[in-house]
Amino acid sequence: MYTFEVSFPVRYYETDQMGVVHHSNYIRYFECARNSMMDSWDYPIQQCEADGVTIPIVEVQCKYRFPARMGDTLTVKASIGKVPAAKLVIIQSVCNQHGQVCAEGQVVLGFLNKATGRPVRCPEKLLSIIGRLIEDSEQQ
């Protein structure tokens, strides 16, 4: 399984009056990790779209475990266990600086032809990148 991590501090505007991160932000954190992951591959989402394929979210699952708070530094993980065909499943988690899991879940992404809006298979370039990363992670 390939895993990518990104860390950042909780920002004031993400919290409520009690200094607790609002539940809706965890979905944003998941997206931040996925976009940073694709950027790290030198194949950002903008390039995929320029290549004619959009990647909409088909399904999101999120379980809230422990509240993240103002002052915390969060680490968001995005893991891919298998090469996609029609859908890409990404397992995600958000942990605070103490290693406590604040939220965990999965996001399922589809692939659409940008011009027609019709479903397509995962772009070859993305397949190649993910396949290589999973293979490399299994050899370690």
Straight-line distance between termini:
10 Å
**Silhouette:** globular
Counted beta strands: 7
Largest sheet: 5 strands, antiparallel
Verbal overview:
With 140 residues, the protein is α+β, with helices and mostly antiparallel strands. The protein has a single domain, classed as Thiol Ester Dehydrase, Chain A, CATH 3.10.129. The protein has 3 helices and 7 strands; from the N terminus they run βααββββββα. The protein has helices at residues 25-40, 45-50, 124-139; strands spanning 2-9, 53-54, 57-64, 73-80, 87-95, 101-110, 112-113. Strand 4 (73-80) and strand 5 form a beta hairpin. The longest helix has 16 residues, at 25-40. The termini are close together. 21% of the residues are buried.
Task: Please give a handful of descriptors for the protein shown.
Thiol Ester Dehydrase, Chain A; alpha+beta; 7 strands; five-stranded antiparallel sheet; two-stranded antiparallel sheet; globular; 140 residues; 3 helices; 34% strand
